[in-house]
Automatic annotation (TrEMBL), chain A:
<comment type="similarity">
    <text>Belongs to the universal ribosomal protein uS15 family.</text>
</comment>
<keyword id="KW-0687">Ribonucleoprotein</keyword>
<keyword id="KW-0496">Mitochondrion</keyword>
<dbReference type="Pfam" id="PF00312">
    <property type="entry name" value="Ribosomal_S15"/>
</dbReference>
<dbReference type="GO" id="GO:0032543">
    <property type="term" value="P:mitochondrial translation"/>
</dbReference>
<keyword id="KW-0689">Ribosomal protein</keyword>
<dbReference type="InterPro" id="IPR000589">
    <property type="entry name" value="Ribosomal_uS15"/>
</dbReference>
<dbReference type="GO" id="GO:0005763">
    <property type="term" value="C:mitochondrial small ribosomal subunit"/>
</dbReference>
<protein>
    <recommendedName>
        <fullName>Small ribosomal subunit protein uS15m</fullName>
    </recommendedName>
</protein>
From TrEMBL, chain B:
<protein>
    <recommendedName>
        <fullName>Mitochondrial ribosomal protein S17</fullName>
    </recommendedName>
</protein>
<dbReference type="GO" id="GO:0032543">
    <property type="term" value="P:mitochondrial translation"/>
</dbReference>
<dbReference type="GO" id="GO:0003735">
    <property type="term" value="F:structural constituent of ribosome"/>
</dbReference>
<dbReference type="InterPro" id="IPR012340">
    <property type="entry name" value="NA-bd_OB-fold"/>
</dbReference>
<dbReference type="InterPro" id="IPR039193">
    <property type="entry name" value="Ribosomal_uS17m_metazoa"/>
</dbReference>
<dbReference type="GO" id="GO:0005763">
    <property type="term" value="C:mitochondrial small ribosomal subunit"/>
</dbReference>
Length: 278, 160
């Protein structure tokens, strides 16, 4: 019986309101689809060996090619040799790795504790940083060199691990080191996930809702703040009126002068503050 | 929401974790929970918010926190009492000397002096307080996330 009644009533409603139609999407209970016009753009994959991922803020600079190779720097014979022989022992006529050696040595020299220091945490990290930057430059030229890429990735990870240790042991030294070597240190995210359309859209929707909420709350706050002086004036008027009435009727006066003055002071301070802001 | 079991005790020792709140810090409290089937204890972390108006606690510090007589907000139930171990600035409680991993700082310093310390080397006396590179090169004060979208003015410093 009830069922019949309800069908009849629905029929009545439908009959009375021809505009009321059942929108299929509004009663769909499965696979919810959002009406929000949020367009997701895939951030794109950045290779883990790129400087923006490894955190290097500078790349390998041009090294002066007219200096000697590292192993001939102390040579006595070279001092007395002729110009042609001297030139032969410069970086210009040496393989690339000799230039890299010089760069790595220079980088380590900037943070060395003493002249013989090769094993301290900062010196090792500096050495690896030099090597990483040299390899990154090389990989730009030979992107299909897989062995180089693997070595580079492993070295970047090792440096990151040791930076993590250094941070735990000696924070001030860690800060000094990353500032000197120009590295950005970002901790790994709490959980790993693949970048998916669904997950990203969920986050974007959440962000949209949060932004909307914040925006409306600030608008409401602004509206209330604009009403504040008017409210205070009204309060002063009402308090004075009550005071007056009570005096005239001869009842106990509950509103004191101090209260009214306090509100007046509040209003004055508020107006002054507003003026200073503008 | 039922409060985590850890927050019921009066004093707690917790590790500070990144938190975006302005007046409070978040702490990770490690507890061992008994699995009655295996009769073994397993680690379980509870998270507690403590009132810290000046944001004294930095990520990784080991901090003593104290329960507030009454809750400040729904989340903030504790207040910071003392920073026991600032991260990377440990003082040995017996000798009162500063320690780096397994060595005393002054021992390291003496070794450097013997070898001839270089002027470019790191000096604790000149080093500024921790936090001067925050948001510049050191991003450990925030939780990082995996980049999931390309925004219009694409500036996401906390994305990896």
């Amino acid at each position: 019986m009830n069922l019949i009644k309800s069908t009849i009533s629905i029929g009545k409603i439908l009959h009375l309101n021809p505009n009321l139609t059942f929108n299929n999407s509004s009663i769909r209970r499965y696979a919810f689809k959002s009406d929000l016009k949020i367009k997701w753009v895939h951030p794109g994959k950045v290779s883990c060996v790129k400087p923006e991922k490894s955190g290097d803020l500078e790349s390998m600079p041009e090294i002066d090619q007219s200096q000697y190779q590292l192993e001939y720097r102390q040579s006595k014979e070279l001092e007395t040799a002729n110009d042609l022989a001297k030139k032969l022992f410069t970086l210009e006529f040496a393989p690339r790795y000799k230039t890299t050696q010089v760069y790595i040595r220079n980088t380590a020299d900037t943070v060395r504790r003493h002249a013989l220091d090769t094993g301290s945490a900062e010196t090792r990290i500096a050495r690896w940083t030099g090597a990483i930057r040299a390899m990154q430059e090389l990989l730009e030229r030979f992107p299909r060199n897989k062995r180089l890429k693997v070595n580079l990735k492993e070295l970047i990870d090792k440096r990151k691990k040791h930076l993590k240790y250094l941070r735990k042991w000696d924070y001030k030294r860690f800060e000094w080191l990353i500032d000197n070597l120009n590295i950005v240190y970002k901790p790994p995210p709490n959980e790993f996930h693949w970048v998916t359309r669904k997950g990203s859209l969920r986050k974007l929707t959440q962000k949209y809702c949060d932004d909307l909420k914040a925006e409306r709350l600030t608008a409401y706050r602004r509206q209330l703040e604009s009403e504040q002086p008017g409210f205070l004036e009204e309060k002063i008027r009402s308090l004075e009126f009550i005071c007056q009435e009570q005096k005239e009727c001869g009842v106990e006066v509950t509103v004191t002068e101090e209260e009214i003055n306090e509100v007046k002071r509040q209003l004055e301070a508020l107006l002054k503050e507003r003026k200073e802001k503008n | 929401m039922a409060l985590p079991a850890a927050s019921r005790s009066l004093l707690l020792l917790g590790e500070c974790v990144p938190c975006v709140k302005h007046n409070a810090s978040k702490f990770k409290i490690k507890r061992l929970e008994l699995d009655t089937n295996l009769l073994m204890y397993f680690r379980k972390d509870d998270f507690v918010y403590a009132h810290d108006p000046e944001k004294k606690c930095k990520t990784g510090d080991i901090v003593l926190i104290e329960q507030l007589p009454q809750k400040m907000t729904r989340l903030i139930t504790h207040q910071v009492k003392d920073i026991i171990y600032p991260l990377g600035d440990i003082t040995d409680p017996i000798t009162g000397k500063k320690v780096v991993a397994g060595k005393f700082r002054d021992h390291i310093e003496e070794v450097n002096q013997v070898y001839g310390k270089l002027p470019t080397a790191f000096d604790y006396g000149k080093a500024p307080e921790r936090g001067w590179l925050e948001d510049k090169k050191d991003f450990t004060h925030v939780e990082t996330y995996i980049k999931y979208h390309k925004f219009k003015n694409d500036d996401q410093p906390y994305a990896v």
